[in-house]
Amino acid sequence: MITLNETFQKAKAKGEGLLIGYITAGDPTPDQTPKIADALIRGGIDILELGLPFSDPIADGPTIQAASLRALNAGTTPIKVLDMARQIKAEHDLPIVVMTYYNPVFCFGVDGFLSRAKDAGVDGFIVPDLPLEEAGDYQKAAKARELDTIFLATPATSMVRLRKIVDASSGFLYLVSRFGVTGTQTSLSDSTLQLIKHVRPFTATKVPLAVGFGISKPKHVQQVIAAGADAVIIGSAFINIVKNNISNPLVALQELQATARALKSATQP
Length: 269
Description:
By secondary structure, the chain is an alpha/beta fold. It has helices at 4-14, 32-43, 62-73, 78-91, 102-108, 110-120, 136-144, 159-168, 190-203, 218-227, 236-244, 249-265; strands at residues 18-24, 47-51, 96-99, 124-126, 148-150, 152-153, 173-176, 209-212, 231-234.
């Protein structure tokens, strides 16, 4: 099975960026998630980010909050999310990253949950509410299972702290492109592009740089890759398609595949 590192190395050899597609696992139902993932993968995403639905998603905007609520109401649990990952991995050889808040992992038991995740084919985790200073035990457990630990940096991250986060990250560094929460926007600000250029020297020889929050259009993708990012992370744009077509899932799958294809094309030279 291809790893995150191998996926980034392949893209680098081709001179192109990666497209990371985020979906909320279980939205609108657990049965639909593998089909949605399949549509995005057929469209060209390189890495799948599965969001584990949580009742208090502090980093997420209204779009992903609503998706989490739909998923929870549909009976999605942490173990069902891992089952979805297993099903997707059985059909597709691409890295799967799980985005989760720490509470579900802690309540289940870190060692047990990470072991089950590894067995399901998960490649790494993003835990936005787990600060670097408190992540030691988690990192040891993840490293023992060869799971990547993906930390986040923001526009407010100091240079001293950024160096520490980069050194602790594996898989890739998740750069939050703006203040606030997730969600689509019509254009990228100059500050976002300057932020990428500022962070790039810290990551260049150590870990790939992936940028998320507010990226939803091919033009955004082109700008982010041109500014120095190795990958773009897109979630709300895909989730809006799911939400707008809940009563017509076949249309949703067609639109997801077409949108992913257009976004992936923008990562290529």
